[in-house]
Give the backbone structure.
Amino acid sequence: MGRIGIPLFNDVEELDVVGPWEVLGMWTQRWPEDGWEVFTFSDDGAAVRCAKGLRMVPDLAEADRPPLDVLVYPGGRGTRPQVHDEHRLAWVRARRADVPLLTSVCTGSLVYAAAGLLAERPATTHWASLPLLAELDPSIDVRATDRFVDDGSVITAAGVSAGIDMALHLVARLAGDDRASQVRRAIQYDPAPPVANPGNDPG
C-alpha cells in the first residue's frame, strides 16, 4: 500500500489541501485496486484553523502516522513563520531522508527552500512569492511561468489551484496517464475561468 500524507497547520491555505485531496481522494477511493491511500495529519492531531477561517480535523497526529511514500506540503500564511522555525525545518529535512517523493503546493515550496531541499533544483511557487523563493536560496532555478515543476524526487506547484494540476500529474506518475484522465473526468476538472487574467499574474 502506497501512502500519501498531507500535513495540516494553522493558517494553511484551504485549496492547497482540498484541491489535491479531491484529486487524490477520488483516485484512491474509486480505484482502490491501485493500492494507494491519502490522509492528513498535524503535529498533535488537533483541528487547525485555515487561512480563510475553515477548520479542518486531521486524520492522525504526527506521532501516529505511518511511513510515507509521498508528502504533499501545502502553503498559505502559515508557512511564513515556518521558514524561520528550526524545529519545522529539521522535520522537513528528515522527510527528505525517509520519503521518496516530496511535493508542495503554493508557498509550501518556501519551506522546502528554507530547509535547503531545493538547492540547485528548478522550482516554483505562488507568483507573489517568487522573489522570496529566490531570496531563500539563490541557487534555485525559479520557474516563474510553470504551473508545476517535476524534478524527479521533488515536485513543486505554483499558487493554490495549481495544486490540482500537480495532483493529477502525481496520479499519472503513480498510476498512469489513463488513470489520471479518469480522475480528471470524475471530478469534472476542465478549467474555463469566466474572468480574464489581470496581467500581473505570470501563472
